Amino acid sequence: MSPGDREHDQSGDTERDHDPSQAPILRTDLNNYSVDPQHLLISFWIGCFLGVKFVTPGSYGWGMRDEVLSIDQREQRLVASERMIARLREVQMRDLAELDVAQVATGDGSRSLSEWVAGRLDISVDSAKTLVRTMRRLQDRPDLQGLLAEGSVSFDRVEALSRIPE
Questions:
Q1: How far is residue 80's CA from residue 83's CA, in Å, rounded to a whole number?
Q2: Is residue 94 predicted with pLDDT exceeding 70?
Q3: What is d(CA 116, CA 129) in angstroms, rounded to the nearest whole number?
Q4: Per DSSP, what are the bridge partners of residue 27?
Q5: What is the dihedral angle through the alpha carbons of 155, 159, 161, 164, rounded to the nearest 10 degrees?
Q6: Which of 99, 132, 140, 147 has a CA that sits 20 to 30 A from residue 163's CA?
Q7: Beta strand 53-55 with 25-27: parallel, antiparallel or unpaired?
Q8: Closest CA to 25 of 3, 55, 64
């Protein structure tokens, strides 16, 4: 394929000039709140495994080289990525709740779920404690869990709101 040829993504849109060094592009819509976070997570890991970059409509350039992004495009990409992080955190909250019920940490010989999470996720004990505390608070706050699942608020905001009694 010559440099002037265009490559088409699955939707048929002309996406970018063909460049063998660029990974294929997978479209996902982070602004579509009906997207199941588990599917996002699965798609993300499949994409990582296959070397696929994610493109979000409205983010303009997740598949583009950084040097061609405008300030506005970078801002949009930053916001879109935070929404994805919030959605993935909600998936973590659900999974942690199930792992807590199953007493996986105790079964693995850990003294606490926080200690187990820190080791499994390779994060600080403080970060793990925040995840576990927030997960436990969200058990009684489906409203906050829903906001996190939508990606409409950040994990940090949900963590702070979860400390306020209903």
A1: 5
A2: yes
A3: 10
A4: 55
A5: 170
A6: 99
A7: parallel
A8: 55
> Rounded distance, CA 12 to CA 144, Å?
38
Residue 150, pLDDT above cutoff 60 = yes
Q: Which residues of 54-74 are buried (b: 16+ CB within 10 A; e: fewer)?
A: bbbeebbbbbbeeeebeeebe
What is the DSSP annotation of the chain? --TT-EEE-TTS-EEEE--TTSPPEEE--TT-TTS-HHHHHHHHHHHHHHTPEEE-TTT--TTS-GGG--HHHHHHHHHHHHHHHHHHHHHHHHHHHHHHHTTHHHHTT-SSHHHHHHHHHT--HHHHHHHHHHHHHHTT-HHHHHHHHHTSS-HHHHHHHHTS--
CB 138 within 8 A of CB 162: yes
Query: For residue range 40-91, what is the model confidence (pLDDT) as tens digits?
Result: 666 655 555 555 455 444 444 445 566 788 899 889 989 999 999 999 999 9
Band of the pLDDT at 108, cuts 50, 70, 90?
very high
pTM of the entire predicted model: 0.62
- Is residue 153's pLDDT more than 50? yes
Whether 36 shows a pLDDT value over 80: the answer reads no
